[in-house]
Amino acid sequence: MKASRIADKPLGLAMGALSGMPAGAASKQVWKRLGHDKDTPDATATRRLTGTWPG
């Protein structure tokens, strides 16, 4: 196996994490400016009114 193939996976994971941080910060700022809650909702959040998962 070539060294470039071995380094590909960790490098890809690191680059994905580094690019996700500014994207997450930008989405939080947009969420705040739109006048929603202080924090963005979790991806696994349940509905606030019914307390159940939609669907």
Shape: elongated
Radius of gyration: 18 Å
Largest beta-sheet characterization: none
Indicate the proportion of strand residues. under 5%
Secondary-structure content class: mainly alpha
The overall strand count is: 0
Task: Report the helical percentage.
Answer: 55-70%
Compute the number of helices.
1
Which blocks of ≥5 consecutive residues have pLDDT under 50?
A: none
How is the topology of this model organized?
Layout: H1 3-33
Q: What are the defining features of this structure?
A:
55 residues; mainly alpha; 56% helix; DUF4235; DUF4235 domain-containing protein
Can you offer a commentary on this structure?
The protein has 55 residues and is an all-alpha fold. Helices cover 56% and strands 0% of the residues. It has one helix and no strands.
Summarize the structure in short.
This is DUF4235 domain-containing protein. It comes from Streptomyces prunicolor. The protein has about 55 residues and is mostly helical.
